[in-house]
Queue: 2 jobs
Job 1
Amino acid sequence: MKARSIYSSILALAIAVASVIYVVAGRETSNDKGSQSLYLISGEVLDNLIRADSPVRFHKLHENGLVNLGDLPITGDRAFIRPYHDYGLVLFGSNLGAGEGVHLDIIDMRSVWEPRSLYYPLCDNCGVSVSGMHFLAREDKTLQILFNSSMQSDLDLETGLRRRVFQTMNLSTGEVKDSHRGDQRYVASYGMAGARATGTGDSTTLVRNHFDGTNEAVVARDMPLGWDVPAWFVENPLESIMRVIENQSIRVLTSAGFSRAGDPGTSRYYFYNKLDDNWHIHAFDGNGSWAIRGFGEWVVTEEVHRIPDTEVPEARAEFHARWRSGVSDNEYLDATSRFLHFEVRPTGRLLIYNVFERKEFVIETGEPDSEVLLVENNQVYYRVDDSIYREEIDLRREQLTNTTLLVSAPEVRHMHWAFLGPPPPEKWEPPLFKD
């Protein structure tokens, strides 16, 4: 299909009324007997509240139980975990601060048992923000990381801004180069894990607008996007524009004002279908705009509502009281404390949306501490408190079927990432990352 002007497309744009299919989480049990194994990562879930002894652990589902494959080498409050299912990679590591560099580890989902480690050096006066690191999927299949460094020694006294330095690191060779201006168009974003897990968000602020009517093209001033921003954002200059998902199949944008401009109690997003080159709007139930992430043509989120402003002081006081008293679940805060911290009330309704078909599926779990972990091969894997389930997605019949309980265990409560990969070699023994 030939590309059309995005502005003329937007004029004719109507909010799509998607089919919504409901299912109540079931309790049928079964062993996992597929040719691929399910791998799960558990970790801390509160930004800026990291405990030094909070490990990030790697697990494999085995029959109806879990095998601990060891702790991932992640330390400090600048850790990040980012799975890119479209490209078969899990990137994780630690930003050790100015002058210390970034340790990056890579798990290839197709060869789980051969992890690789890379190191990105920084000069003594340089820093790099976790939020400024973006995975690049170039057309030549060269996989790179884009680091957005701030030179602390190069401060503009008039503007108060530091000169930004863009570089890339080849994930195969570790080679670091100055970034080409066009590299921004290759940025991939999977979104954010459920429960707002630390260091996982990789959304990009494209344009930051200010209330005095001026705007700052945060990305475009340094690197052109290579595509047009939808007209709604251009025509509403008080709204900052965020790209929350970008993969081989779809692109998803939003802003605080746009998200809340629809029906009360919903959150709106702009979806771009790369297959047929068109944009549409879809609104999810819940005004909390919780975690949203993409798996190919699928987008998943949870219905979450913000605590009313009048109740926020009480919620904050309760959270800090729980934090000071050490309320936790092993090494991690419990779900109640997590929700108080983010000032939200999850409903336990999981929302699964197919961008190509414009169909939404809803799983009613009845448990606020629930999240979708993975959608692959028309199967959805999701966590309900301390249990993980799998269901089949039948797009033609518009229904979810074959609810299967895969595992129940206390450590499941802190699992927020999952992927499928080959089973381990016969003679392999944990841990995956050796000292």
Job 2
Amino acid sequence: MTKQTLLFAAKFILLSVPLTWLWMEWGRGAYGRFFTSMVSPLYELLDIGWNPGGARERYINYIPFFVLMFITPRLSMARRLYGTAAGFLAIFVFHVIFSLWVQIAYPPGQRSTSTGFAIYLPAILLSDALPLVLWAVLCHDFVRDTTSKAFGKLGLGGSQAPGSPPAASGATEAANSRGDD
């Protein structure tokens, strides 16, 4: 691992731990109340019965997303702020959809259905992956450069590892395969 990778991981951990503690102690309850107050009118309008109790337990997605946006190097302040705001909005919209998805998987009065988990599991996986996916989309330049360097060092494409010969271009490879020189 490079020093840059270790520094990135250390920053992620050092910022995530206190923010996670704050979320568990205060943010989870506050977000649960906010989420319920925002979503209840929508669900009433759509005539969907729902149990808001589980909403606050799974919705910690904001923490890893915020930390990744905060520590990603070479982001302009505008991109960092607008990206964080857009990501928070996308996460909130997904939380609304996720709550609806739960109601479909486990209709009120039928919370123990065995087929419910098969419907619920993809939503859980999407919810857990959402912060990383949003960050990768919003910080695509950093992700592209970093993965290109990492794969290049492994000899899997991207930038070349130090001391390795340059890759042949597509035209050179085509000419070689035809025998043209």
